[in-house]
Design goal:
The structure holds two protein chains of two kinds.
Chain A (H helix, E strand, L loop, with lengths): L2 H21 L3 H5 L4 H22 L3 H25 L13 H31 L3 H22 L4 H22 L7 H5 L2 H4 L9 H24 L12 H5 L1 H15 L1 H4 L5 H32 L7 H25 L6 H22 L7 H8 L1 H42 L1
Helix pairs in contact in A: 1-5, 1-6, 1-7, 3-4, 3-5, 3-16, 4-5, 4-7, 5-6, 5-16, 6-7, 6-12, 6-15, 10-14, 10-15, 10-16, 10-18, 12-15, 14-15, 14-18
Chain B lengths: L2 H18 L5 E2 L19 E2 L4 E4 L4 H7 L3 E5 L2 H4 L9 H12 L3 E6 L19 H18 L9 E4 L19 H18 L4 E3 L3 E2 L3 H9 L8 E5 L9 H14 L5 E7 L12 H25 L4 E4 L37 H13 L3 E2 L4 E3 L9 E7 L5 E7 L5 E8 L2 E5 L12 E6 L2 E8 L4 E6 L9 E5 L1 E2 H31 L3
Parallel strand pairs in B: 3-4, 3-11, 4-5, 5-6, 6-7, 8-9, 9-10, 10-11, 13-21
Antiparallel strand pairs in B: 1-22, 2-12, 12-14, 14-15, 15-20, 16-19, 16-21, 17-20, 18-19
Helix pairs in contact in B: 1-11, 5-6, 7-8, 9-10
The chains are: A mainly alpha, B alpha/beta.
Chain lengths: 425, 514
């Protein structure tokens, strides 16, 4: 795969994901004042249109490129409608937009989610095009974190500038990607669509789908909770003050996550092993990641909800960012390690559409109004239930991973015996 | 140049243009001469303004007069007036009316809250739902109106029925209304009907609802609670930013339109708290910032609301209380006398910066005319669309121009008008003669003004010579980088993405790739 193409994918990933983080950064305050008619707009512009376009984009390479270009155009056009009506410095707490401006804001967010999902489709295929897909993933997510931190810092000048900056970044990254995208035969695309190239990295496990689904629900919701809880009940001024630190701190978290992946060497080495061994090796990584995720969330809840004076501080934002970054990197390593290479782009696109919707929900959580003392009572009211759900979901994944592991042991024993018999004969 | 070089060149252009797009600097491109507007004033959509300046809970009558307050909104609470069945206590209100009258001010009494000394239908909260309590309530209402309207030469002709009845839990011990919404709507309907039949000259105001909740307002109309009401009152509090006030007012107007209500709209509470904690280290810096922010909201609220046709806007409230950490005690326009924590340069002041802003407006906008087409822009740019501009002519024929930039950029504007002089009230203090964000030169009877307009409104009082008709103002502004972003960079990125994307897809078709 061409180096320039890989760089363009990384850029696209950074720009598109940061645009989702940035454009949805303030939506909590907007969502809490929605009327039923607004919710219809949200469903149409923010969900139905992007999901329909995701399906169109999954038909083939040509439609994906067309949808990507169109999404950039629509996102830019939406910004004009939003700009023409929305006051810039306003937000968070008192924003009320007119119906048309709201429609275009939702459409813009929908297009950002679409671009983010498409960028992750491209990023997921780096695994098939380069051995250095893990550093590429790290670079892409890190760029997203840094771009978002930059956007949030610019937010001190007004939320429209945040939106403007994120749109320019994603549009520039998208245009660079489109320019570099090879449109003729014998290019990078044909390289990574080759099943021959993909086959060695496949993990054949019948429980993989359900295991990944539960794992993704758990880790995505955890990330949404980190975004939401770390910004909950903060005064308006905090959003132009400390919250950029959360996204800037993604980078160290991502780094730790990727170092953990390297330490397990699974993502790099397993393609050389027998299929049955790969199943076993991949379970170690999954289980370790899962246990760390749950432990991190317990620590996060304890610090945010139970430690007096911690919530909303610079330290809390940095720690939240590191946890978020770690989860982002490790969950994607697990997905890319476990994921069947033959799966069509629809899988990755929908998976990430779902991920970004949870991030939006996390941002919504930030905007929930709290009465005096209500934040302090969250630990008693909700924490036990959240922890219970964490434990149940983690337990399920653990159970499935154990079954996969044991099946792998059984299979490898058969294969080893057959190999020994073959060698003897 | 080969294909690869071509691609790299385009990519560098994109990266460079992306960087340019965010530099928060202005690129001056204005000419050396300042044009004047040639046409006479276009009066289309002009709004006559009477006495829109009110303040809540005001007892410092001399300061009210100094500020230019024309109406004092105050609870004439049932429990304070009838302290036992038919035990009427009027002293406090008689004094209030007397003080206000002597200063040519009016009053907006709020008929409100329960009276457990008289009611039999409830022993807690604020709820009137039994027929006995309703009759007692009507007796109290009529006594008040008889005393201060009928027996006082129709002096008090504005009456508000209850305060923020949409706040409070059902059957709670506290809350402004602790009955059901339906019970309150019935109370308002019957009270308004009673008043309108007996005293047709009254201006009856609805319950001033907290916020602008169109759903609650819609229910209030649907249940007939607005049948005999002349004025709809609401409290569009918006935290520290009032830039969406017009949207909120529009939402209220939309509800009124849907229900065929043609009465007036009053904002009977609006404001922002400047609470602070004197125990926090370095609190004065933040306190100063919040005080100055509150001041910027006064011109924004009045300009927006008057331009939207709101007849009266009551600032909540006149004075601060003694508890500096409690939000409710820090909405005032004047410092509390016990406040020893005032930051510099306000440590010697009685008025908060918001008080100075209020004073500047109230002394000039009473009996003025709002002229929506009084300000013109020399050119239409994305950045100029964010320059909020409000043009008023005063009763003496002068011009009041209020400008701010919604984008929070420091936009350089210039304009020239025929005038004897100019007085500017600007941020941060809004004291007369303190503003530094402008430069004015007078020559041949014309005043040329160059000003830096940012998020904080600047109030220009332009002294038009006697016998000269006020002219429109033509504003010239600088070409900002944000204009370049919207006019060139974003269209370039969007169009190039779509065109190159199409070309790539075409190539893929041509070469038969998937």
């Amino acid at each position: 795969m061409k180096r320039t193409y890989i760089i363009s994918v990384v850029l696209l990933m950074g720009g598109a994901i940061s645009s989702v983080f940035s454009l949805t950064f303030h939506v909590g305050w907007l969502f809490r004042g929605l009327y039923m008619e607004d919710i219809y707009l949200l469903l149409i512009a923010g969900i139905i249109i992007p999901v329909a376009l995701v399906m169109v984009a999954s038909i083939n390479e040509k439609t994906r490129l067309s949808v990507l270009a169109a999404a950039i155009g629509i996102l830019i056009a939406s910004l004009y409608f939003i700009y023409s009506e929305a006051p810039n410095p306003l937000m968070p707490s008192s924003l009320r937009l007119s119906r048309s401006a709201m429609f275009f804001l939702f459409l813009g967010i929908g297009m950002a989610v679409l671009l983010g999902s498409l960028s992750m489709v491209e990023a997921s295929r780096l695994k098939q095009g380069t051995r250095y897909w893990m550093p590429c993933l790290f670079a892409g997510f890190s760029l997203a974190g840094l771009f978002t931190a930059l956007n949030s810092a610019v937010g001190a000048f007004g939320w429209l500038y945040t939106s403007l900056l994120s749109v320019v970044i994603v549009a520039s990254a998208g245009l660079i990607y489109i320019i570099i995208y090879p449109g003729r035969k014998g290019n990078a695309i044909s390289e990574y669509t080759s099943q021959k190239h993909m086959a060695p990295v496949a993990i054949m496990d019948k429980l993989k789908g359900s295991k990944l689904a539960i794992f993704c629900i758990l880790s995505f919701f955890n990330m949404g909770l980190v975004i939401g809880l770390s910004g909950l009940n903060l005064v308006d001024t905090a959003y132009s003050g400390v919250t950029w630190l959360l996204f800037a701190s993604l980078v160290p978290g991502l780094l730790v996550g990727f170092l953990l992946g390297l330490g397990f060497s699974g993502p790099f080495s397993h393609e050389k092993r027998l299929a049955s061994i790969k199943v076993q090796v991949s379970q170690y990584f999954l289980i370790v990641v899962l246990l760390i995720h749950v432990s991190l969330m317990f620590s996060f809840f304890t610090l945010e909800l139970l430690k007096p004076g911690y919530h909303g501080t610079i330290t809390s934002q940095i720690v939240g960012g590191i946890i978020f970054g770690f989860m982002l990197s490790t969950s994607h390593q697990v997905i890319l390690q476990q994921h069947p290479p033959k799966a069509n782009p629809l899988y990755h696109a929908f998976l990430h559409t779902w991920f970004f919707i949870i991030i939006v929900l996390g941002n919504y959580l930030k905007g929930i109004p709290m009465k005096e003392g209500q934040f302090e009572s969250l630990s008693g009211d909700y924490l036990p239930y959240i922890m219970l759900v964490e434990v149940i979901l983690a337990g399920l994944v653990l159970l499935l991973a154990s079954v996969s592991y044991l099946k792998g042991v059984k299979k490898s024993a058969v294969i080893t015996t057959e190999s020994t018999l073959e060698a003897r004969s | 140049m080969n294909r690869k070089s071509c691609k790299m060149a385009i990519i560098w252009v994109i990266l460079f243009s992306s960087l340019i797009g965010f530099m928060p600097v202005t690129a001056s491109s204005r000419g050396n001469t300042i044009e004047t507007a040639q046409a006479s004033l276009d009066m289309t959509g002009a709004i006559e303004i009477k006495d829109p300046f009110g303040a809540c809970h005001a007892d410092s009558y001399d300061i009210m007069e100094e500020l230019g307050v024309k109406m004092n909104r105050k609870d004439i609470s049932w429990s304070s007036i009838e302290q036992g069945d038919d035990n009427w206590q009027w002293n406090a209100w008689d004094n209030r009316i007397s003080e206000l009258k002597s200063r040519n001010m009016t009053v907006l009494p709020i008929l409100d809250y329960g009276n457990l000394a008289v009611q039999t239908g409830t022993d807690h909260g604020n709820r009137i739902h039994t027929e006995h309590d309703m009759q007692e309530w009507m007796e109290y209402v009529n006594e008040c109106v008889e005393r201060y309207y009928v027996n006082d030469s129709n002096y008090v002709d504005n009456w508000e029925i209850w305060n923020e009845a949409n706040l409070g839990e059902f059957n709670a011990s506290e809350g402004f209304w602790t009955g059901t919404d339906e019970e309150f709507f019935e109370l308002q309907r019957r009270t308004a009907q009673n008043l309108s039949v007996q005293y047709p000259g009254l201006n009856i105001l609805s319950n001033g609802i907290s916020g602008h909740d169109p759903i609650y307002l819609g229910a209030m109309f649907a249940r007939g609670a607005m049948e005999h009401v002349d004025t709809l009152a609401f409290h569009p509090y918006s935290g520290s930013s009032y830039d969406t006030l017009p949207v909120k007012i529009d939402a209220v107007k939309q509800v009124c339109k849907e229900h065929g209500f043609n009465g007036s709209l009053w904002i009977t509470e609006v404001g922002m708290s400047t609470q602070f904690n004197p125990d926090e280290p370095g609190f004065k810096t933040e306190y100063k910032r919040v005080l100055e922010l509150q001041a910027t909201l006064v011109p924004k609220v009045y300009a927006h609301a008057l331009a939207e046709g709101i007849e009266t806007i009551v600032w909540y409230c006149l004075g601060d209380g003694h508890n500096f950490t409690w939000g409710e005690h820090n909405f005032g326009l004047i410092f509390h006398e016990s406040n020893v924590h005032k930051p510099e340069p306000y440590d010697g002041d009685v008025l908060k910066p918001s008080g100075y802003a209020y004073k500047a407006l109230a002394h000039n906008l009473n009996w003025s005319t709002y002229i929506p087409r009084g300000v013109k822009l020399a050119r239409s740019l994305p950045s100029t669309s964010k320059i909020e501009r409000f043009y008023f002519t005063t009763s003496s024929g002068d011009i009041v121009l209020i400008l701010w930039n919604e984008n929070d950029d420091a936009n350089q504007v210039e304009f020239k008008v025929e005038a004897d002089g100019i007085t500017v009230f600007g941020p941060p203090s809004y004291k007369e003669g303190i503003a530094k964000n402008y430069h004015a030169t007078t020559m041949d009877g014309m005043v040329s003004i160059q000003a830096t307009i940012d998020l904080s409104p600047t109030i220009f009082l332009i002294d038009v010579p006697e016998g000269v008709a006020p002219s429109p103002v033509l504003i010239q502004s600088t070409f900002m980088v944000i204009d370049a972003t919207f006019l060139f960079i974003l269209p370039f990125l969007g169009i190039a993405s779509v065109l190159i994307g199409c070309w790539k897809v075409f190539q893929a078709f041509k070469h038969g790739t998937r």
